[in-house]
Amino acid sequence: MAILDDDVVNAFVPGRRLERPALGTGRLSGLRFAVKDLFDVAGSITTYGNPDWAASHPVAVATAPVITTLLQAGARLVGKTKTVELAYGLTGENVWHGTPVNPRAPQRFPGGSSCGSATAVAADLVDFALGSDTAGSVRIPASYCGLYGIRPSHGAVSLAGAFPLAPSFDTCGWFSRTASLLVGVGDVLLPGGRQPVDGPLLRVEEAWVNARPEVAEVLRPRLERIEQLRGRAIGIRVVPEGIDSLFDHFRTVQAEEVWASLGRWIETAKPRLGPGVRERFAAAKATDPAIAGPGRAFRRVLQARVRPLLAAGAVLVFPTSPCPAPLLTAGPAEQDAVRAATIGVTAIASLCGLPEVTLPAGMVDGAPVGLSLVAGPGLDRGLLAFACDAADVLGLPI
Amino acid sequence: MAILDDDVVNAFVPGRRLERPALGTGRLSGLRFAVKDLFDVAGSITTYGNPDWAASHPVAVATAPVITTLLQAGARLVGKTKTVELAYGLTGENVWHGTPVNPRAPQRFPGGSSCGSATAVAADLVDFALGSDTAGSVRIPASYCGLYGIRPSHGAVSLAGAFPLAPSFDTCGWFSRTASLLVGVGDVLLPGGRQPVDGPLLRVEEAWVNARPEVAEVLRPRLERIEQLRGRAIGIRVVPEGIDSLFDHFRTVQAEEVWASLGRWIETAKPRLGPGVRERFAAAKATDPAIAGPGRAFRRVLQARVRPLLAAGAVLVFPTSPCPAPLLTAGPAEQDAVRAATIGVTAIASLCGLPEVTLPAGMVDGAPVGLSLVAGPGLDRGLLAFACDAADVLGLPI
Hints:
2 copies of one chain form a homodimer.
Chain A: H1 6-9, E1 32-36, H2 51-55, H3 65-72, E2 76-81, H4 115-122, E3 128-133, H5 139-145, E4 148-151, E5 171-176, H6 179-189, E6 201-204, H7 205-210, H8 213-230, E7 234-237, H9 243-269, H10 277-285, H11 289-310, E8 315-319, H12 332-352, E9 356-364, E10 367-374, H13 380-394
Parallel strand pairs in A: 1-2, 1-3, 6-7, 6-8
Antiparallel strand pairs in A: 3-5, 4-5, 4-9, 8-10, 9-10
């Protein structure tokens, strides 16, 4: 597992290797961090991964509050990292800025959309990095790059000063190489209170079946070790409608919001968009409200089904991604198939607004795969504490 | 479905057709009830279903408080009903007092141990009746006789003035022909507060698989109708160790307590005991504490696994009994097999101290089968309210 230099990794947006010193001392003193280039830093244009976006937007006049909070806690900003254009994609490809290299599996995609933040952390260019996660944009690159990653409860961490994608799903998450730093950043950014997450483990059967057999095979003994902490997992099926319906419903509701957030700019600026991103925006534009309506209803049903199970501290557990990162040679059809299978699982936390932590739990075909833990809304700190215990029993970096 | 006279049903203990008038007016005014003959009524010997018990115990000097509460709420006591000897059996057989007739399926056992209370209600000899439920002694005869029945949360209703079987499992439950009266008795007997039970449905897969195929087939469409109230049920597996382990662990912990409660009397009085009951007491005497210890540990594990799922109002749903009542011609081997399969399911609520309501949901081979709803501990009133809604959507007697 080589640690690569930045001239190989290319994690940062060209011209955005900007430095901001710490604004205080605290929990994060001495640590370097980077932020996905959809968060504003005063004095710089936020590119959102697309040159036409950069050209049509002014210099930011204020820094996103979440960045200021990190600077005040002692961390130092060292740059803004690449993102899939407008954060609308999971492979991590960016044809304008160059797709960053996955340091843990250089022949494979890094995962996205927070591809630069993940690769910068994986290559030890920074200690931690901020990303955003709507459909899996922190969880998937964390899984692909062998990192810890968290998607917090929806609304738990401020997205002020960050560009939106699908606001009812958008969250601000982060990556680290150690469990303790994942917690440390959470201590700074998350609301107070530490209601424990000390309930039983719930094995989401659909997600285990959805994973490629070799992924499930590698992660199953990891789950068994975590069971030493909480007893045997209860198997649950949360989507009797079939896991495909999660992808279908999530996709339509997301597309409707994406078009509401970004459609006007797409229609007026007529930007160049890379492959995949272009097609997804065309589909978002074409989304029929008559289809998105049932999707929103499904979201309410799923929330009513899943959230009460987690109220007293139960934890969902399942493979973060159904497969390791696709090879860079994967064509559009394979990428689409991976996307559908992936969102079928990431949509659980996205649709229900739940916090999810992914642990760098295993390797398949020489590439990392993550194991996810999901808790009830607002139980982020308790979930992080449990993730630390789980990492410990798994012998992962603490 | 014939309503039978008492001279056919034989629900009451010979000589215990005792009457006590209402002691007030209230929710239950004008209603007749009976109590299983393990509850004391001042001035009468409580037989506990066995003539040697009756011969070796004095006349009760006080009435069980739960009976007084019902009298004060306006109900009138009309007699004491038959029980399996010392409440230690599920078929409802009593060779000393005569096995009461199941009015809904006269060729079959009535179910027990609260056999007289169930049959008295089923035959309309009373409006409701008290039973006790340790391993299923209300739930099973309710299922077999086509009645509503409730096993409350452990400790929710006083068992003062009632003889014990296995105190950490013993509860005071009741039977009715209508959902509203099941609720009405609960309004009088249960602690106040009505935290709603408004969470998702959890289909306990092991119990559905354990049920005979024809039972699952009849009850599955009933569950689907209840899903109209709460959305699609989540499938859960709560016993990865296998459902047989529920029976095995429950049986040993129960046996240890049974012997602690009744062993001294058995050893000193050397009573005559009927078939089945005799063998169970011999097994209880022989129970090795080294076996019951793991059973107690298993109970704690199961509680930690199941209770948090129900904290926010989720409801377990499964067939109350895996089969309709066995035919009266069933031999000991068949009875033992039915008992093991039955307790594998009833032990869920028993081991976890949870309230369970059974609804008279269907008929198989011309005999009734119940559908059970189980809620978190202490949520009895909310569970009863939900059971009413479920009965309504199923078109059952309200």
